[in-house]
Design a protein that fits this description.
The chain contains ten helices and eight strands. The protein has helices at residues 3-7, 11-29, 47-55, 66-75, 94-100, 110-119, 149-157, 177-197, 212-217, 227-230, and strands at 37-41, 60-63, 82-85, 103-107, 127-132, 162-168, 203-205, 222-225. α8 (177-197) links the parallel β6 and β7. The structure holds pyridoxal-5'-phosphate (PLP).
Length: 236
């Protein structure tokens, strides 16, 4: 679907269309669809769009920008929602992230892990973290290099206010399904390897509106879907 076609649907129609794509992708991969969580990425969409999706029974939302996310967490504090930070974080934003989110998907350096651990409030459960990996080794892309995962994982495990849950990546857009799947497969191999040393690791955050099928085929356990659920984003 083009984003114009998506924009013409209502929230319920978009949610069913995405669930149907997920179910089909799981079926094609011989996987149980209960094993792939849907995260609704609501960045640059208003709080009302989150209310609409929540009214349809959805409760896990992802934001990319700390300030925008914190605003929404506060505006929507009457709802029981699970909040994920999926975008990169500057070190001056770690406190706001530690105080407002349930998950961070974009951890890519020790300095940020140390700050999140120190700043996570005592009355909240440990912050769930995913290590973001730059799986295609793209210059200027966030994420640690694949060979830095182990050291960062060791550090996170030693942080009592953080819970290491797995990996996240945003592979480069490829021109064939095969090439797309190869990136996700490399990521899955890193995920399996991480899990061998860290038994609580259970989450592989991979797949967005354009490539969720490839990600599910290669073992994603959480897809992050924006456009297909909310329509086109406003330009910044
Ligand atoms: C925006 C964003 C998404 C959602 O992207 P869509 O292509 O709109 O589904 C997922 N993950 C991250 C990290 C994002 O920044």
């Amino acid at each position: 679907m083009t984003s114009n076609q998506i924009n013409a649907l209502d929230a319920g129609q978009r949610l069913s269309a995405v669930r149907q794509r997920l179910d089909r992708a799981c079926q094609a991969a011989g996987r149980n669809s209960d094993n792939v969580r849907l995260l609704a990425v609501s960045k640059r969409h208003p709080a009302q769009a989150i209310r609409d999706l929540h009214a349809l029974g959805h409760n896990a939302f992802g934001e990319s920008y700390v300030n925008e996310g914190v605003d929404k967490v506060e505006q929507l504090s009457d709802l029981d929602l699970e909040w994920h930070l999926v975008g990169p974080m500057q070190s001056n934003k770690t406190r706001a992230a530690a105080e407002h989110f349930d998950w961070v998907h974009s951890l890519d350096r020790i300095r940020i892990a140390r700050r999140l651990n120190n700043q996570r409030p005592e009355d909240m459960p440990p912050l769930n973290v995913l290590i973001q990996v730059n799986v295609d080794n793209e210059p200027q892309k966030s994420g640690c290099a694949p060979d830095e995962i182990d050291e960062l994982a060791e550090f996170v495990e030693a942080c009592p206010r953080l819970a290491l849950r797995g990996l996240m990546a945003i592979p480069a857009q490829k021109d064939s399904e095969d090439a797309q799947r190869r990136s996700f497969r490399r990521l899955y191999e890193l995920f399996v390897k991480l899990g061998e040393g860290h038994p609580k690791v259970d989450t592989l955050s991979a797949g967005m509106s354009d490539d969720l099928e490839a990600a599910v085929a290669e073992g994603s356990t959480m897809v992050r879907i924006g456009t297909a659920l909310f329509g086109a984003r406003e330009e910044t």
